[in-house]
Structures are given as C-alpha cells and as structure tokens.
Amino acid sequence: MRLLVTTALSLSLVLPVLAQSPAPRPDQLKFREIYKELVETNTTLSAGSCTLAAQKMGAHLKDAGYPDADLHYFSVPDHPKEGGLVAILPGSDPKAKAILLLGHLDVVEAKREDWTRDPFGFVEEKGYFYGRGTADMKAQVAAWVDLMARLKEEKFKHIRTIKMALTCGEETSTAFNGASWLATHERALIDAGFALNEGGGGRLDENGKPLALNIQAAEKFPQSYTLEVTNPGGHSSRPVKNNAIYHLAGGLLKVAGYEFPIEASDITRIYFARMAPQVGGEMGAAMSAFSKDPKDLKAAAVLATDPSYNAILHTTCVATMLNAGHATNALPQRADAIVNCRIFPGTTPEQVRDTLNTVVADPEIKITLYDHRSEVPKGPQPLTPNVTKPIEQLTAQMWPGLPVVPLMSAGATDGAFLTPAGIPTYGVSGMFGDPDGNGAHGLNERLRVKSVYDGRDFLDKLVRTYSNAKPAPAATN
Prior knowledge:
Elements: H1 26-39, H2 50-64, E1 71-76, E2 79-89, E3 99-104, E4 123-125, E5 128-130, H3 138-154, E6 162-167, H4 178-185, E7 194-197, E8 201-204, E9 210-219, E10 221-230, E11 234-235, H5 244-257, H6 266-279, H7 281-292, H8 297-303, H9 307-310, E12 316-324, E13 330-331, E14 334-343, H10 349-360, E15 366-369, H11 385-398, E16 404-409, H12 415-418, E17 425-427, E18 432-433, E19 446-448, H13 449-467
Parallel strand pairs: 3-6, 3-7, 7-17, 8-18, 9-16
Antiparallel strand pairs: 1-2, 2-6, 4-5, 5-19, 8-9, 10-14, 10-15, 11-13, 12-14
Helix pairs in contact: 1-3, 2-3, 3-13, 6-7, 7-8, 11-13
C-alpha cells in the first residue's frame, strides 16, 4: 500500500514548475512501456482485473525466455479477477536462500469525473508521470518485471534464486489478498531469506531536494471501525430530537477532535534523529528534541503540523465513509460511518475501539470492528548488515552524503502477511516522493519522472548485489 515514505493523502494540485524530462535512455524504454501498460490496465476492485495485469506481465517474462514451469499464475474460483503471478529465476546454488520481490497490482478506486486527467491513462507532463498507481505501486512493480526480464535475457550469473510475487488485494481489506493466500497455501513457492517490498523510498523537500532514503522495517496496523446508529425513524414532518444522523454527526465530531497520546519506538526515534540535520530549521530542531525525549510535547506539537510526521507519532483515526437515511421525506432509521485507524505498535484494535467508545460517549452509537485484514505485526524487522549494507553502499554511490534512515510506515503493506510466515520483509524502492504524498489514494496521482528512473536503476543494482552476496542474504543471519 505504501510505495512512498508517507501515506499523506493530500489532494493538492499546486506543483513546482519542472523542466521537461530528458528522453529515456534506450534501456529505459522497455521499462516505460511496461509501466504504461500497468497504469493503463484498470486493477480496481470494482471494475478492474489483477488477473489480466498478471497475465500481461507474465507475457513479458515469457518473451524474455521464461519457461512455463517458472511462471506460476494463481487465483481462486470465487475471485477470478483477483489473481496474481509468481515468477522464478533459479540461481546456481539451490541451497542458498532466495530473494523475493513483492508487489501488489491492485489500486485504489478512482472516479474519472473527479480527476483532471483520465486516471487510467498514462501521462507524462512537466516532469511527472500521472495516473492511478503511478506512485502506489506500479512503478516498482514495473521495475521488478523489467528487471526479471532483463536478467533472463542477459543470462545473468547469480548464486541465489530470485523470485517475484505480484499479488492483488492489498488496497482493500475485504478483498482476496494474494500475499496472504501465498503465505498460507503456497509457502514453499515464495520461500526466501527476505523480501523487498513497497513502503520505503525517499522524501524530497519542497524544492525537490532528497532528504533521506528510507528502509521500512515496521508499520502501523490498519483497522477500520463501523459507527452505527439505528432508531424507528418516521415521517419528516414530525421531527424528533432522537435523530440517527445527528447522533452520528456528533460522535464523528468528537472523533475528529480527539488526538491519541504521543508514542515513540526505537525506529521512530532513530528516524527523527537522523532526519533532523537534513530538515533543519524549527522542524529539524523539533525532530532532534523528540528523538532525545519523546515526552517533549512542545517538540511533538511542531512535528504534528506535518501530516507525514504526525502519522508516525501516535495512533490516528479518521472518518472515510458515510451513509445515512433511506428517503428524502423520512426520518433516518439508520446512519453509519467508517472510521479508519492506523494503530501504533503495542496497541490492540480492541483497545482503540474502547477508546473510541469513551471519546464518543453516546450509547446510541454502536462501534464495531469493520474488518480483519491481518494479524497485528510483531515488532520491527531485523536491520542486519547483510540487508542494510548494500543499500547504504548504493545510496552513497547514487546520492553521495544522503543518509539511509529506518522507517515505521504509517500505512500498511503486504509485509504483514509475509513476516508471520517467516519471511522478513523490507520496504525499499529508491524512488523519492514529494512532501504532499503525490496524490496516492487521492486525486491526480503522480510520481516524478526522475524519481522513477532513478529508483529503477537503484533496484536493478540492489537485486544484482543481493543475488550474489555471500553468505546468503537472510535477515536472520
């Protein structure tokens, strides 16, 4: 769910004026074609097909020389359009732990009437690629497919098997989740020392300057709740005070006004400590102060003014959907809303529900868990040198002086399904996002052309390095 460093869902259309990007290098043209094909293949749950996208990606690998035995398509009968693909490029040492490249094909819903451009049209304009999924996460998926194809065509010599799993269902908690299915039904097929996934990347400042490259090693837990009010209703000509809409609206306003307590973990303290000198100014000073003392509420208040930083300071809850009434001339018999929470590690969904009940303080409002996406993640992934050192070395080559900073993602990824299955999963992309979140999950989603091509080059070098690393690149080493 999270290609970029942040999950801020700003809908801002105020962009810096960028020069036209240079023409792609010859080796980038095929990648761009794959990227375009992915973005223009609708993979929303309502009207799209991940299965079709997986077949298209498999066709590229077939053309590159992959035999059918190394291309594993999967789906289930009751979700025929939510299928995926596992591709395998065998290494020379069958005993060495494999590397898994994970990516989700599905995207968040997008209404054409709300967008400036067709959300399923791939547009390059003023230094950006536009379209649903350009940022979350079809750029990285295209990089995986392009890399797997080129490695095969080059007859690249490598020790460790490289696997790629393209799945569906990451963006919708009630959908068929391919990563979960693979972890529970085809665990041996995706077995690996560790996986590379979305969730990391880099952050740019307002002027487009890189601030840091992130490795996502932890994530908050997503949980939605239903707030529901029911009553007998009646004729609208006889209004009464006990109105389901009013009860619900009052409860939602209380949720909007509540801030969960500030929290910190080892990863967030390290994150703010290393980001402080990069950011500078008042915000940098607040980062430094908070990293030293998470009880510094003055510093936390400064951090909270930035949606991205606020998102990793504490549990957050926000109303995302609303439904009420059944007729224009009738009192509402039912009013309900969905409140989506991102829970800080160490807190349970039940504890958050209890807090919401206390905050709302209205017995007319029934609060229940809306869905159950995955088990609550247990602790951060181990940042061992065999995982981090290649990232640090490549970062120093491509962006000299840029720090590599561990990150707890405010969003949620399919790593939540792999880590319980014994496959440590890290968010790494080398693609840098704008401070406003690049419209991910919102309107006019976009990603800088330079960020995409740089990230593609970074991932190419990183996977090649891991594939020939000694000892085996397993996070538990």
